[in-house]
Amino acid sequence: MQIVKLGGSLITAKRTRKGSRQTPLKMFRAAQAESAAAELARAPGPLVLVHGAGSFGHVKAHKYGLHKRNRTRPPKSKAITEVSNDVRELNLKFMRTLEENGVHGISVPPNVTITNRKGKINSFDSKFYKKYLELDLVPVSFGDLVYDITLGISICSGDDIMYELAKAFKPERAVFAADVDGVYDSDPRINKNARLIARMTPERFKELTCGVKNEEPGIDVTGGMYRKIEVCEAIASLGVECIILNGLKKGRLKKALNGEKVIGTYF
Ligand code: IPE
Which of 93, 96, 101, 143 is the most exposed place for a label (fewest CB within 10 A)? Predict the structure, then answer.
């Protein structure tokens, strides 16, 4: 079995455009989702998928302060409903894209399989994933709002779901398809001499964290690339091969799922 996360920055327009201060709201990148779905359709063996929320989740979650962990009372129900519906809207668009490409998926909404505690996963129920896999379906989960036993509601990122899936299923491989080639030693958008790190080790990560800050352009309420690296490190420490690759580059996702070496960062 392999687990794949399609980042919100891959299947939605998430980053602030050059010259604009506005982060786009709810922009599905149909062509990119379509080409990822076509590559997933050719993957060998069982698959579990996760996708991010991108501009369907981060913008409003930020606006309503849903990411804040020092809240004393739950956020307004209107805010919860809006964000919850928006991420489901994206999920349905993605499910339809999968369907059109012959991937028989079924949505597994995190708010019924996960509870959080102070903004972190407290319980994860893998039962539905198992049952759906037995029925030859591809379970598809996504970044969502979930019940939080201390905060009432909080954000559960797709990256954290990937870690829970890795723990529960010990898959052959965990792949994060992003809109960049992998992890760089400095920000490639600012520094044109930035070098891609082909193999990340805990030592290399420690060296990097001295300089790496979460400074993604646009809004990211779940920690951006820094958090992703932490999750990948944690998945690798379970003995599961983990790769961050560029899902916009044709063929890379398909090759990686077929066990071929691709350009990306391996953990
Ligand atoms: C975020 O999920 C969920 C919400 C903002 C509600 P992710 O953290 O997995 O989304 P991306 O991949 O960064 O867009």
Answer: 96
Q: What is the pTM of this model?
A: 0.93
- pLDDT one-digit tens code per residue, 12-70: 987 666 556 667 789 999 999 999 999 999 999 899 999 999 999 998 999 999 998 88
What CATH number is attached to the domain comprising 235? 3.40.1160.10
**Span from the CA of 89 to the centroid of ligand 1 (angstroms):** 14
DSSP per-residue codes, the chain: -EEEEE-HHHHB--SPPTT--PPP-S-B-HHHHHHHHHHHTT--S-EEEEE--GGGTHHHHHHTTTT-SS-SSPPPHHHHHHHHHHHHHHHHHHHHHHHHTT--EEE--GGGTEEEETTEEEEE--HHHHHHHHTT-EEEEE-EEEEETTTEEEEE-HHHHHHHHHHHH--SEEEEEESSSS-BSS-TTT-TT--B-SB--HHHHHHHHTT-----SS--TT-HHHHHHHHHHHHHTTT-EEEEEETTSTTHHHHHHTT---SEEE-
**Ligand 1 binding pocket, CB closer than 6 Å:** 7-8, 14, 52-54, 57-58, 61, 83, 87, 143-145, 155, 157-159, 220-222
Number of domains in the chain: 1
Give tens-digit pLDDT for 228-250: 999 999 999 999 999 999 999 99
Domain extent, residue 39, equals 2-266
